[in-house]
């Protein structure tokens, strides 16, 4: 009941903030005189802070992931000169979303920045994306308020050996510069695929067994998870933008463990705080049932009496 009351209170505050956003020339509004803009911007800021306070009264997810889809289609919709401009808009949106997550108290965020199969795109687009990765990783580590003010730690996960040498240098720079930060952890998945992550983890398991570091009889899900590329707590929420209803080979193992999956009918650069907040309220109202299901699964695993449950079947 408390969550329901909170959600109504929250939606009222959020509606006021959203109307203010429109009025000051947001995605669908028209620009107003400067004095009125300042007043409404103040109202919008207060509405945002109020919404954050209300949301933080309920449970907060520890790990949220985003499939940032729709940058190119957004560029075509907005009639930008090149699709690369859509990727720039997507990066700008990412910094905003990370600020929302930080304000909400979310400790781990994973983003699908570049899929392994994206290398099959045109040389021009891949080159642009690699250039952005090189620059943006350094900018995040050096100039971002999220890093300097809030202590965000940057980790890049995936098959980074496939990346150009200068991008790998930027990755190492960003990771080393932020490694001691104690705030939110940002996992940048680049280049990444879930099947590659799982097969790589299996390869590490086999290597550890062959090297005498692990007994073959001890191989189970927990041992596999220790070797996954994306660390951190269980995935709570997975959000995909652009209206496409698929996971695109992203965090498949993690998603299977009761992750709350949401598909948003908006391109990534259009993704709004209102949409983010609705997802969070929905997750909060479902969180008890999710935890109950997780406990039931754990009890089932513990009660198994036929051999040892393994990623390879019963041993």
Automatic annotation (TrEMBL):
PROSITE patterns, sorted: UPP_SYNTHASE (PS01066)
Gene Ontology process terms (BP): polyprenol biosynthetic process
A Gene Ontology term for the protein's cellular component: lipid droplet
EC number(s) stated in the UniProt entry for this protein: 2.5.1.-
GO molecular-function term, one example from the UniProt record: ditrans,polycis-polyprenyl diphosphate synthase [(2E,6E)-farnesyl diphosphate specific] activity
Keyword Cell cycle on entry: no
Pfam families given in the database record: Prenyltransf (PF01255)
Swiss-Prot/TrEMBL keywords: Magnesium, Transferase
Organism domain of life: Eukaryota
Cited InterPro entries: UPP_synth-like, UPP_synth-like_CS, UPP_synth-like_sf
Family named by the database record: Belongs to the UPP synthase family.
Protein name as annotated: Alkyl transferase
Source organism (scientific name): Coemansia thaxteri
């Amino acid at each position: 009941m408390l969550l329901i009351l909170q959600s109504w209170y929250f939606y009222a505050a959020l509606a006021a903030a959203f109307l203010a956003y429109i009025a000051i020339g947001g995605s669908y509004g028209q620009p107003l005189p400067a004095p009125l803009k300042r007043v409404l911007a103040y109202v919008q800021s207060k509405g945002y802070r109020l919404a954050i306070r209300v949301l933080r009264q309920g449970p907060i997810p520890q790990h949220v992931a985003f499939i940032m889809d729709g940058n190119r289609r957004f560029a075509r919709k907005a009639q930008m000169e090149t699709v690369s401009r859509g990727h720039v808009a997507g990066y700008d949106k990412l910094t905003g979303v990370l600020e929302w997550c930080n304000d909400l108290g979310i400790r781990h965020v994973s983003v699908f920045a570049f899929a392994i199969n994206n290398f099959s795109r045109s040389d021009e687009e891949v080159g642009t994306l690699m250039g952005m990765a090189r620059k943006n990783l350094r900018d995040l580590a050096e100039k971002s308020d999220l890093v300097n003010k809030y202590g965000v730690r940057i980790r890049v996960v995936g098959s980074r050996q496939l990346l150009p040498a200068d991008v790998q240098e930027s990755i190492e720079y960003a990771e080393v510069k932020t490694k001691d930060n104690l705030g939110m952890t940002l996992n940048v998945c680049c280049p990444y695929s879930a099947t590659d992550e799982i097969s790589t983890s299996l390869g590490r398991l086999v290597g550890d067994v062959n090297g005498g570091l692990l007994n073959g009889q001890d191989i189970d899900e927990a041992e596999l998870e220790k070797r996954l590329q994306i660390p951190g707590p269980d995935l709570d929420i997975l959000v995909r933008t652009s209206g496409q209803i698929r996971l695109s080979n992203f965090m498949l193992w993690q998603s299977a463990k009761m992750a709350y999956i949401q598909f948003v009918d908006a391109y990534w650069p259009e993704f709004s705080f209102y949409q983010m907040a609705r997802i969070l309220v929905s997750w909060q109202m479902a969180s008890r049932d999710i935890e109950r299901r997780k406990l039931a699964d754990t009890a089932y695993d513990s009660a198994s009496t036929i051999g040892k449950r393994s990623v390879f079947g019963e041993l």
